[in-house]
Amino acid sequence: MPRNDAPIAANPIFGSEPITVPRNELSADGLDSDVAYQIVHDELMLDGNARLNLATFVTTWGEPHVRRLMADSLDKNMIDKDEYPRTAELEQRCVNMLGDLWHAPEPVGCSTTGSSEACMLAGLALKRRWQHRRRADGLSTERPNIVMGVNVQICWEKFANYWDVEARLVPMSGERLHLGAAEAVALCDENTIGVVAVLGSTFDGSYEPVAEICAALDRLQAERGLDIPVHVDGASGAMIAPFCDPDLVWDFQLPRVASINTSGHKYGLVFPGVGWALWRDRAALPEDLVFRVNYLGGDMPTFALNFSRPGGQVIAQYYQFLRLGRAGYTRVQQVCREVATSLSAGIAALGCFDLLTDGSQLPVFAFVVKPGEPFSVFDVSAALREAGWLVPAYTFPKDREDVAALRIVVRNGFSHDLAGLLLDDLTRALERLRKQTAPVRGSEAAGFAHGT
């Protein structure tokens, strides 16, 4: 028989990979697309499994239709509303739907790249409204301040730093791990542009008392004439409370609430990144913050820190609103809460942890190691990481730095079954950790920055 001396093309992609992959400079000739893809794909395998990341609030699971719509929209620029008028229309419909959900009298708003940008925009609107009032009264606009709890997400500290606003942070004290009404009012004066109330603290998942804060500010206005608005940072809670806590009054039903933000890519159930900023009416958003451009083919108002950004996330948000409706969102968020509360109860039953929260507000809970145990929260976090779980361990802010906690975020896609597997792995880890004579890891081993 004739011999076939042609070389066998076994594993052609790996056989074509260069000995040295250019990682920090452009190669001279580039690589075949299949080879380049395989190199990038393989390196990404070294990342953690996003579904097992119980530190992040960001959506890690979505239906195939969400992925398909986002893929279909990769080339759509959200800012180009003249060229993509239907995408712009879907954005406005989302604003209207959120306005209806949050009881806005005349909703005005926009999409953003996430809650951080939305908070920046809301803070700018608070500062500009304060400046307008002060100038109208012939008063100084120097030294504005904003009042918030020390537990706010770091974007608020960035806002204060970037826009020259004094951040007046209310510390934690005793069992109060977030902002209280009396403590907020005590820091307010004529230079306060607003108070930030967080509906769902990232430290422990608890709601701040928005209605109590507004009532305390009402009393302050009656006594001292200071009219101070409230912004609700609802990055997570603004998409939980309307469905799981419909009787809780926290939104635009309170006249003092001027603006609300949320993250569409958190409990809005969209992949990152999209956020939403809404104001109760046009008076709450100063007109001089809105820019109008016409060089994309039409007169378009814009209020954003970013300009060009993808439209796929906004489209996916509209899909989710259509797909789920109030009943669907209620079911999804209630299941998340049920998983959180049952898992927290299971962890408490292990006997070596104390719960700070139980997941009955945000489906998020924090817990600490009981005194006398021979391990730290950082030991527990490291042990769970060995099994693939990312459960962050961290210390609390100033005045409660003695608290070192673990936190679990339950999102859509983290099921009762996965929670059971996590509890099994935690139980096995404790068998080993309880044999230690003393904690091994301190806070320097946490590897977790709470502001991220």
Characteristic key phrases:
alpha/beta, 12 helices, Glutamate decarboxylase, 13 strands, Aspartate Aminotransferase, domain 1, 7-stranded mixed β-sheet, Aspartate Aminotransferase, domain 2, decarboxylase, 452 residues, 4-stranded antiparallel β-sheet, PyrdxlP-dep_de-COase, 36% helix, globular
How many DSSP helices?
12
Gyration radius (Cα, Å) is 25 Å
- State the oligomer: single chain
Straight-line distance between termini: 67 Å
Helix content estimate: 25-40%
Give a quick account of the main beta sheet: strands, pairing sense, barrel closure: 7 strands, mixed
Any idea what the CATH architecture of the largest domain is? 3-Layer(aba) Sandwich
The CATH homologous superfamily name of the largest domain equals: Type I PLP-dependent aspartate aminotransferase-like (Major domain)
Q: What's the pLDDT, averaged over the residues?
A: 92
Total number of beta strands: 13
- The parts where pLDDT drops under 50 for at least 5 residues are none
The H/E string reads HHHHEHEHEHEHEHEEEEHEEHEEH
